[in-house]
Amino acid sequence: MVFWEGYVSDEVMGTFAPIVVYWLYAGFFQLLPPLDNYRLHTRKEEDAKNSVPLSSVIKGVLLQQLVQAIVAHILFLVTSETGLVGTEVQPSLFIQLIQIMIAMFVMDTWQYFVHRYMHINKFLYRHIHSQHHKLVVPYAIGALYNHPLEGLLLDTVGGALSFLVSGMTARTAVIFFCFAVVKTVDDHCGLWLPGNLFHYFFQNNTAYHDIHHQLHGLKYNFSQPFFPIWDKILGTYMPYDLVKRPEGGFEAKLSKD
Asked: What are the residue boundaries of the Fatty acid hydroxylase domain, all occurrences included (predicted)?
C-alpha cells in the first residue's frame, strides 16, 4: 500500500515523481542561505567560472525532463502491456532490494562507460558533453543540465536499462528513480553539509564529483551516481583531501598520497 494508490497509477508516478522530486530537492538547495562555511567553492569562483546563466540551465533541465517523461511513459506502457518485466503482484521487500541493487549496478556501469567515452572522444566532448561542464562549479539545479542528446543517452537510456535488466515493477521504479535523482542532485549541490548521510555512506559524493568538474579532474572520477567501482577497477579513480579554507568553506584537493 502506497499513498498514491487509488489516485494515480504506478506508471504515472514512475514518470512524473522523479521530476517533481528533482525540483523539490534542487529547489531546497537553491533557497538555502549562502552557507559560505560549507561551500566547496566561493560564490566569487562560481560567478567567475560558470559560463551559463541560471535561466538557461533551468530551460536545459526542463527539456531533458520532457524527453525523459516521454520515454518513461512509453517504456512503462510497453512493459505493462507485454509483460516484459515486473508483475502485478509487488514482490517481497528483500526481492525489491535486490532489484534496486542490480539497477544501481547497471546504471553505474552504463553511465561510467558512456560518460568516459564522451570525454575521450574529442568531437563528443566538444559538441555534446562540454555543455554540462560549462558549470565548472556545480550547483544543485544544474545536476541535469546536459546537451539533449547526452540527457537521452546517459540518463534516460541508462534508467531504462536499469529498469529492464533489474525486472523491477513500476512501483519499485518510483522508489529507485526518485532516490537516483536525489543522489544526483546532491552530488552537484556544491555544499559539504554536516550530517549529510550521502557523505558517510557513499564515497562517490559531492566532493568526489566536484573533483571531476575541475579542469585537473576531467580525466578522473567518471563514476556516477552511486559507487566508484569502475573508476577504481579501470584506473580513473582520483582520491582527494577535503581541507578547510582560511576564509571559510571547504576545498576538495587532489590527494598527495
From this structure: 101-236
State the Cα–Cα distance between residues 118 and 171, nearest whole angstrom.
32
User: Three cell numbers at 103?
Assistant: 539497477
The residue among 177, 129, 132, 143 whose CA lies nearest residue 30 is 143
The torsion angle over the Cα atoms of residues 89, 94, 100 and 106, rounded to 10 degrees, is -110
User: What is the distance between the alpha carbons of residues 19 and 69, in angstroms, rounded to a whole number?
Assistant: 8
Q: Does the pTM of the predicted model rise above 0.85?
A: yes
What are 166's three cell numbers?
533489474
pLDDT per residue rounded down to tens, the chain (257 residues): 788 888 888 889 999 999 999 999 999 999 999 899 999 999 899 989 998 999 999 999 999 999 999 999 898 888 876 665 555 678 999 999 999 999 999 999 999 999 999 999 999 999 999 999 999 999 999 999 999 999 999 999 999 999 999 999 999 999 999 999 999 999 999 999 999 999 989 999 999 999 999 866 678 999 999 999 999 999 999 988 888 988 888 888 887 65
Name the residue ranges covered by the structural domains of the chain: 10-254
**Nearest by Cα to 75 from 4, 8, 161, 151:** 161
- Looking at the DSSP assignment, which residues form a beta bridge with residue 242? 252
E-assigned strand segments in the chain: 240-244, 250-254
